Amino acid sequence: MTLSEVSPTPEEQLVRLGIELPQVPRPIANFVPWQRLGDVIYLAGQTCEWNGTMVYKGKVGQAVDLETAQKAARICGLNLIAALREALDGDLNRVKSCVRVGGFVHCAPDFLQVPHVINGASDLFHSVFGPDVGAHARTAVGVAQLPQGAAVEVDAIFAVA
After folding, report:
1. Counted domains in the chain
2. Is residue 20 part of a domain?
3. Contacts with 82 (C-beta within 8 Å, 6 or more apart), sequence order
4. Domain, as residue range, for 129
5. What was the pLDDT predicted at 4?
């Protein structure tokens, strides 16, 4: 039995989960979607934009509920995976580890479930890359505003071959 028979590759897992990745969002300011330094890829923050359209806007805990915010975080994660795939010339199977995830939630001052929102991205990484490779350190913070009024933004760092 081979390792791929035991654990599907990230590319196989995307197919199994029925996930189609979006186009990599292009920056609206002076930065790039990803930067590689040796065996580490730093992914710029991605909002809950899907192929050029901001899907979820507004403050979580007011205009956006927790479940919707988790969906927004998942879209951020999908954008990150799309950028990671681009950085790896289309081969997500080269991912060794999701090292760190940073989550930013545009939320009401009294919203206390910020970490639960970012689970939308964390759970996606675990599903696509598996529990070992997808496990990561994480920060989740509430903020007063995000670009274009987005409800959520997520960034990440990956170790790659």
Report:
1. 1
2. no
3. 21, 22, 23, 24
4. 3-12+35-160
5. 44
* pLDDT score of 21 more than 90: yes
Residue 5: per-residue pLDDT = 58
**C-alpha–C-alpha distance, residues 81 and 84, integer Å:** 5
* Structural domain contains residue 126: yes
What whole-number distance in Å separates Cα of residue 2 and Cα of residue 84?
25
Q: DSSP letter string over 94-140?
A: GEEEEEEEEEEEEB-TT---HHHHHHHHHHHHHHHHHHHHT--EEEE
pLDDT tens, 123-145? Answer: 999 999 999 999 999 999 999 99
Q: Return d(Cα 28, Cα 120) in angstroms, integer.
A: 24
3-state secondary structure of 17: coil
CATH of the domain at 148: 3.30.1330.40
